[in-house]
Design a protein that fits this description.
Order of helices and strands: HHEEEEEEEEE
Structural class: mainly beta
Largest sheet: 9 strands, antiparallel
Number of domains: 1
Shape: elongated
Number of helices: 2
Radius of gyration: 20 Å
Distance between the termini: 72 Å
């Protein structure tokens, strides 16, 4: 009987690390490898900026980024506590976006800065929900 209990305990201890309660999403390789200003959620691109039909906005005083089509029928807005200036930096913020005819929000998201380009684009990834946002800091 002791041997069965010991075997069961060893089995449980072996499996336990693989059954963590964390639901962190690995970074989407398509997201990190794109240069397009866009919003990606769990591998699905929700919005991509098109320079001919879209607008970019950035308010440095509020650390607020807006990406929208010309009619504002599709958009996403990201308001951060602070605008990241280097790779690896973390920033908390709130995200608002449209999907079909719905307006969605997620508040208190923690983003990690995955990349910053010389033209002001910032790649931000939320590991908990698998949300990737690329915005552009305008001068």
């Amino acid at each position: 009987m002791k041997m069965k209990r010991l075997s069961l305990l060893i089995c449980i201890l072996t499996i336990l690390p693989f059954t963590s309660c964390r639901h962190d999403e690995e970074i989407d390789p398509d997201f990190i490898n794109t240069d397009n200003i866009s919003l990606t959620i769990k591998g699905s691109v929700k919005f991509t900026y098109d320079g001919l039909n879209c607008q970019l906005g950035y308010n440095p005083d509020q650390n607020k980024f807006t990406v929208s089509n010309d009619s504002m029928s599709e958009y996403y807005m990201l308001k951060l506590e602070s605008t990241p200036s280097e790779k690896g930096q973390k920033a908390k913020g709130d995200l608002l976006w449209t999907e079909s005819s719905d307006i969605n929000t997620k508040t208190g998201l923690e983003f990690e800065t995955e990349n910053i380009s010389s033209d002001g684009r910032i790649w931000l990834w939320n590991y908990k929900y698998g949300i990737g946002v690329i915005v552009r800091k305008l001068d």
